[in-house]
Amino acid sequence: MFSVILPSRPCLTDVVPLSSDPTVPANNFAFTFPALPKFSHIVIFLLPGVVLPADTAAAVYVQFPKDLILNPNTGTAAPPLSSSATNADPEFKFLGAIANEKPSAIFKVNFPSARRRTEAEEEDDMMDEGTSVTPANTVDINPNATITLGITIEPVQAVASKIADLQNQTQNQIQLQMSSFPSTTDLLKLSTGQQGAAMAKWAPSSVSAKTLAKQIIGNAFNYLASFAVSDPRVPGEEVVPLRVFRDWWAKFENRIDADPGFLERVDAP
């Protein structure tokens, strides 16, 4: 009846009907698939020729397993994400629905938060030659974990109510985030540098890490090159005193504090 598409994976059609009575058409269905590689969106659609019963819709839910997150110290499954129900299975989260009038949809899926690697851990990996660095989007995710996608045939009124609740939750989250955004009055009370810092905290960055790295390296090179002197020990070579690098670093930090977004401007000096 249904099919699922995940980015960079084959189309899934092996849905499992869930019914206690084999003589009665199932109203509940499930897909199971590996959690990795991670994904942020999922496509669900009715197969050609499939028509849902009148006045019904197919509600879509996702369930993450208890062993999704690994303990970073032991490499074993961490405790359940919900501390209030340590022995219960994780709940199914409502994503949305499809229907005869809308036989396909794309849903946003948010993975539960995994422990972020510390700066010290990342620096250790960078210093260890020959050590592969685990991509950030797979850190602490159990490679053997499977996700369950549940689909239930429900009255259209019930599904519409769930969609309204989901939209309200999303709107409330947006309002909560906006409530902590500095007001125009507050910004006017700040100095130019403080305004830049306040806005940079909230403004999304469209500059890639590679571009930022090139900006930092270019900034350092331009500054240090002006202090280069000939190395008397090696003809044709130039050196830069270490104190000059320290001076550059101090100036660089001061500029970051005064104008956090200057590196995101491609023409930054």
UniProtKB/TrEMBL annotation:
Family matches, as Pfam families: Hikeshi-like_C (PF21057), Hikeshi-like_N (PF05603)
Record's GO cellular component terms: cytosol; nucleus
PANTHER family found in the cross-reference section: HIKESHI FAMILY MEMBER, PROTEIN HIKESHI
Highest rank taxon of the organism: Eukaryota
Signal sequence range: none
Region (Disordered): 116-139
Domain (Hikeshi-like N-terminal) ranges: 6-169
Name of this chain's protein: DUF775 domain-containing protein
Domain Hikeshi-like C-terminal, chain residue ranges per copy: 208-265
Gene Ontology MF, one: nuclear import signal receptor activity
Family: Belongs to the OPI10 family.
GO biological process, one term: protein import into nucleus
